């Protein structure tokens, strides 16, 4: 079972308390964007085997959205951080690189 720690309230919540929000750090396109840009935002998602950054909501807790880094192959969670972050924190990236030296980094 997947267990994530909410960075806001500090609760270790299993996946039954959480709601997935799918891929994190998407570039959002709205009015004035080309049809191709909007289509890529709406429908094109990464589906990696390995390290992935995702959005989660602590639905049955504080209700806040947060971001998590985890390995989709092993379900290992590297850490969580606030949803307002524009990129993963440097210490989290360093932790991932330490455990997964072959990882190419956040893009």
UniProtKB/TrEMBL annotation:
GO process terms (BP): tetrahydrofolate metabolic process
Signal peptide range: none
Superkingdom of source: Bacteria
Coiled coil region boundaries: none
GO terms, molecular function: sarcosine oxidase activity
InterPro entries: SoxD, SoxD_sf
Protein name according to UniProt: Sarcosine oxidase subunit delta
Source organism: Pseudorhodobacter antarcticus
Organism placement in taxonomy: Bacteria, Pseudomonadati, Pseudomonadota, Alphaproteobacteria, Rhodobacterales
